Amino acid sequence: MLAIAAFALPGAAPGRAGEAGRFDYYVLSLSWSPSYCARAGRSADPMQCRAVRPFRFVLHGLWPQYERGYPEFCGTAQGRDLSRRTVDGMLDIMPSRGLVRHQWRKHGSCSGLSPEAYFDLSRKALQKLRIPAAFDSLEAGGRVAPDAVETAFRLANPGLRDNAIAVTCEAGRLSEVRVCFTRDLQFRSCRWVDRRGCTQRQINVPAPGR
Fold first, then answer.
1. Count of alpha carbons within 13 Å of 96, Cβ hemisphere only?
2. Over the stretch 35-91, which tens digit does the pLDDT of each residue have?
3. Around Cβ 161, how many Cβ atoms within 10 Å?
4. Other CB atoms closer than 10 Å to residue 159's CB: what's the count?
5. Which residue segments constitute the domains of the chain, with CATH numbers given?
6. Contact at 8 Å (CB) between 18 and 209?
7. For 114-147, what is each residue's pLDDT tens digit?
8. Strands 15-19 and 142-144, bridge-based pairing
């Protein structure tokens, strides 16, 4: 069973066309890879779901946000195509070439940064967040309250408050953990995201490789 104390939590609004570089803060979104693999089944990306060493939390993306809503698919002088080198450089934390490209087109294009700078910032944001030890050592999976996941992250990250994080679920499983950062990567409140988390009392946390 998942070794996290049990606790219930309140993820993003409709996107709209925006101007690159004009936004208020970032949301770092981490996906629980075993849930994606279970949900996607045969259509799952084999790079992510058939890896010799199963993935756990992976980077879904770093998303520019307004205080309410978010920009998407912004026009940018950088263009929407990525070099193979840029894509391959992210595969250790975003194990899907399609995901890397999509995240740049939809979200990275609104950052006002070059692709290289955007993905470098994404990696730095991920490094700022400590993953609770329970998820690094999880072997058997189990059921847990969404608030227990949130609480584990807050305990592992001093300064991360309950109004700066949301846990989402899909099909009864842990889907994502979303954490809000200022543009210079400090934790910050984001009630618009916080109010859209998982409302189920208990969710499944599939074990890696299951």
1. 21
2. 999 988 888 899 999 888 889 999 999 999 999 899 999 987 666 689 999 999 999
3. 13
4. 8
5. 15-205 (3.90.730.10)
6. no
7. 999 999 999 999 999 999 999 988 877 889 999 9
8. unpaired
